[in-house]
Each structure stands twice: as structure tokens, then as C-alpha cells.
Amino acid sequence: MMEIKRKMGIAHFARRIKHPRGLWVKMAFIVVLGLCFVFFWSFLSSYASSFNVQRESFDDIAEPVSSRTKPARNEVTESSKSHERSKVESGSKSKEGRHVGGSVHKHETKKKKEHVVVSHPHKKKDLPKPVVVVEEEAVVKEVQEQVEAETEESESNKEDGEDGTESDGNEGESDQNGDESSASVDEEVEEKKEEVEISKKRKRKGPVFDPKAEYSWRLCNTRSKHNYMPCIDNDGLIGRLQSYRHRERSCPKKPVMCLVPLPHDGYDPPVPWPESKSKILYKNVAHPKLAAYIKKHNWVNESGEYLTFPQNKTAFSGNVLQYLEFIQEMVPDIEWGKNVRIVLDIGCSESSFVAALLDKDVLTVSLGLKDDLVDLAQVALERGFPTFVSALASRRLPFPSGVFDIIHCAACRVHWHSHGGRLLLEMNRILRPNGYFILSIHPWCAAMTALTASICWNILAHKTEEASEMGVRIYQKPESNDIYELRRRKNPPLCKENENPDAAWYVPMKTCLYEIPSAIEQHGAEWPEEWPKRLETYPEWLTSKEKAVGDTDHWKAMVNKSYLTGLGIDWLHIRNVMDMTAIYGGFAASLVNQSVWVMNVVPVHSPDTLPFIYERGVIGIYHDWCEPFGTYPRSYDLLHADHLFSRLKNRCKQPASIVVEMDRLTRPGGWVVVRDKVEILEPLEDILRSLHWEIRMTYAQDKEGMLCAQKTLWRP
Fold first, then answer.
1. pLDDT: is 182 or 690 the higher one?
2. Where are the alpha helices (DSSP H) in 420-576?
3. Measured distance CA(465)–CA(467) in Å, rounded
4. What segments bear the compositional bias annotation Basic residues (predicted)?
5. Which value, in Å, is the radius of gyration of the alpha carbons in the chain?
């Protein structure tokens, strides 16, 4: 009966439509159908958008401009006018490479803001309490990423153990795992780019620091305790169940606002330079694994309260001086301290190589690998040697292309030939044309021989010691592109023309060869002048020569008139120095006659001047100060920040975390010198006082000023 009624209703509706008045019914029916379709389509679209799509290649990742690319006509670059821009450019060309690595932060989902009120335990002023923005972490996503990364790493180590080779934790995975790792890195880069765009739209207004804020401090509760490195150590929610350190640089989602504790037995003023080359205070670098390491090696001894480093006992067979003489005899063009000035040492083992080169006026940067659980990199820093800590896996090192005169690897246990040779290709990227790669390895690997031949490295010398079977080879990178065209197999291929070789901040390694610069306006086309002449030489490719000269003259005058004599700093106890906002390296150049070394940090959002810094014979690195720096706590005797905060005011989630990072980097008794606007220095002084720093000097004229403060032993 119901079926008959339904059919009759449909027939009646059809007759109504045929009637002239049925036109309105037709239109209403069409509108209803359209609305239903729109609603159904929007539901499907929102559902589909909730899934993540994995990228298949890195080709569409935008990269910043390089000083290695030829300039385009009529192009105007605005980066020199804006220090607060965080942009990644692709395919554009510039004479001087204004940007290297846009500042990128890991994208966070499901963000929720809450207000946390903090109080000052020793307040001197009655100030209102601050409002600190805290963001809720995407816990499930973080756990998944850590589990996947550590699972891949443990599987790779297991495979290497079966093959009978010693793994360093960075290499040894199958090619399939390598592809998965690259894909995950690609997703993270994409997420960071999205975060940059979001941060641009939500720029804060007002002062950098809340002038009415009070701060209450607590100690960091981490597994690494007094050696905590926030972006390297694995201290997440399940960090204690995972490996000790991240596979790649991975910073906490919330700004670090806790203070790193002092070593268990306290911290004493370090042994001054140059005595620190031969001995350091053991308590300052005490570590359980270090104690076990000392018992097995004779190049370091425990002598009372000190660790001593005998000159006649090194990790090298024979004497390290003989090793350096052998290198120069085999390759006479390697004139230590003249033709060769800047060296990168991979692995940071026992530092005798670095110490010996210092006596020859060669500045060596040691790369402490993140798998160095003995913390030998911290020992090197305590001795007064330039060192930083980083992973060497799938992302580029934070250096521009073609800047190191020599790269040295002595038993550094790096699998250079794995994953299509991407690690060796990364060394090729940062090695200067005609530069040297010195490799001491045991035993020798046939795959390494094939790889070096495929990238046209010339073997200048080869020697194998009969007793240890340790092979020493000296390679040289080509000086022109002609030899690349003569290869029978174009593998690895040449990189695309629009790919920027200087882009290094959160940029994945490429398995391709960059063309060697040949035009006069490209950095790296010619070998620099001999040291020390190169310090005051301004190359043809530097378009802003007048600014560079002015920067050098300015800092030379400032350092001589005030820094060395007017700030109350005892420079006899200053060795490790960092310039947090280096531009042309003028501050470092003005200190070249002092017994110090300076790490020149070029912020990733600033004009890219790091190639010129290396060209003049001093060292540096790219960094984003919205994130912690890659080194151990208590690494530096002096931090210099020239208008750092005023340039970062619209970029970082919590600017006070930069002050916390400065506290982490500085040794007790160390100094910070900050030059900035008065409106920034006044609340900064209050923050430093809350950290119990001693304010040694403040100066203000008009709207600019300077603050000089010294760190104490206080911990909450």
C-alpha cells in the first residue's frame, strides 16, 4: 500500500512540473540539489586535507640567494635594509648572496595559549607580573617522530654490526632507510617554511622585553644534566627511553626557560691560555664515560685535580709534528699559516692536531659529532680550541660553500661512501676549489676510492704505515669545471643552476656536484691572499667594500679605545669569544693580535656575509638565535651582541629565552657586552640581575647604549 502511494506521489509531482507554474518548482529543486552537492564536497575536502602528503623530492624547496651565483641585471636586493626579514628565495641571483637559509621553525599543530604568572624570589622593585605565552606541544606527533627516527638508527647500527664495521651512528643504514630519512627531513623543512609564513603574519608590537616583567628561575631537569644541549640532547617526553641524542638537530617546541646546573663538584675558573693547552681542571668537564675513556688512552692523563695532555703522546702514530711535516713534504703548496689558514677537523678526537696547527698560525674548527658520548668536544673547548657540535647525517653543515682550505679526517669513523656519497659531497660543497681533503683511515675502503674518482678529486699523496696499516691520503678538489665534462659516467650529476650552494640552515644534503665558480663576481673563484695579508684584503666579488672597510675601522677603534681597557675585562682570562651578530667580521679582526679566537655568528635572517668572513681568514657559522646554539654549556668567556635583540624583536616567540641561552653559553666569571637601544637594555639589565649577574658598566647616549655584565656562580 505504501509503495502504491509513493508511486502516485511521484506521478503527481511530475504532472505539477509539466504545468506552467511548475517552473518555480524546477528551479527550487535544482537549488536544493546544488546546496547538497556543495555541502557534500566541502565535507570531503576538509577530511582529505587532514592527511599529510609525503614529498618525493627536494627540488621545489625554495632556497636563498647565493654569493656564488652570477648577478642578474637590474635586480634590487632589499635584505641589506631589513634585518628582520626571514625569507627563503629560490632561483634568484645576486652578486653578494644577501640571504643564506631563511629562519625556519618546526611547525606545531593544535596550539593553545595559556597565561603563566611567575614571580621573583629576590625582587628589588615592585613590578607587575609578566604574562608569558606558553604553547601546548603536539605530543603524539613528537612521540611518533622520535620512535621512527630512533628505530631507524638502531636498525642501521645492527646492520653495521653484522657486517663487521664500526658504526658512528650517522651512517650504515640501507639505502631505503636513507630515502625515508630524507623524506622526513623534507617534511620538516616544509613545516618550518609554513611556520615562517605564520610568524610573519603575527608580528608582535611593542618592546622586545616586557619592562614590567619579573622572572622566576628553575634548574633544567634533563638526562644530560650539567651538559645539556637543548637541540642535540634527546630530552623529550619519552627521551629517557630513546637514544641519548637526536639523529638530527631537533629543538624543543617551547623556548627553553630553565637554567643548566653546574657540574656535580662545582665549577672553578678555567686554566688560562696558553697553559690550558697542556692541562685543564678535571671537575669542569667531569663525565662518567670520560673517566673510562682516560684509562684506555695515553694522550690524556689524570693528574690530581687536572687532566694533562703530554705533547709527546698523541693518537697519531709517531709525533703530530712529524705528521704535519709529512703532509707539507708530500704537497709543498700546503704552506701552513700562509697558503693554508682555515681548516675543518672532523671528529674532534684528542685535539693534538688542532694544537699543533695553532703554533703554525692555522685556525682549525673542530666538528664534534653528536655521537661523541665521551664529550671530547667539551674537553677541546675547555682547552681553548674552536669547536662546535652537530649531527652529520642528512642536513648540511651550517657553513657556506667553498670556504675551508683543508678538511681533515683522522680515524673519524664516518662512512663517507654511504647514501650515494652525500657526506663526501657535502665536504666537496664546503671545500674551497683547489682545497685539500686529508683522510687517515684504517682499513682502506674500495668504495671510497671509486667515489673520490667520480667527483674528480686528485690523489696528491698516499702513504700506508706498515706497523698500523693506517693509510693517509691527500686529495685535491678541482679548480675548474672542465674535468667534470670529461667524466664517462655523469654520476653524481651536476646540481641544477638555480640551486644555491650557500643555503645551509635546515637544508638537506644534495647528492650532486656544484659547478666551480669561475666569474670574478663569484666567491671562491680565486684562492685568497696569504695570511695575514688576507685579513685586510677585500675581494672583487664583495660589492659593499666601503661598508666592510668602515666596519673594520669602526671596530678597530672601539676595541682599542674601550673594550681592551675601559670595560674592566681581564683579557688574560679571555680565550673563547663569540660575536653573536657578526657582519663583516670587523670585531674579530680587531682582536686578531689578542690571545683569543672568535666564533662569528651570522644570523640566518641577516645579509649573508659569512663567505667574506672566511675569505679574510677568520671563522664563523650560520645560526638562528630563536633556537639554542650547538655547543656545550659554559663554552665561552665572552659574548658580544651588537643590536642582536633589536633585529630579532619580531621573530622569536620568547626573546627572554635568548638571555637564558646566553647564560648557558657563558662560563661563570665570563662576560657579555651588549650594544643596543636603551629601551631594550633597561629591561635586559633587569633580566640579568634576576639571574644574579653582576652589572659592571652601563652607558647611554641619546637612544643608544651599552651594557657590560659578568656571570656569577649562582644557580636557583
1. 690
2. 422-430, 446-454, 482-485, 545-558
3. 6
4. 107-126
5. 29
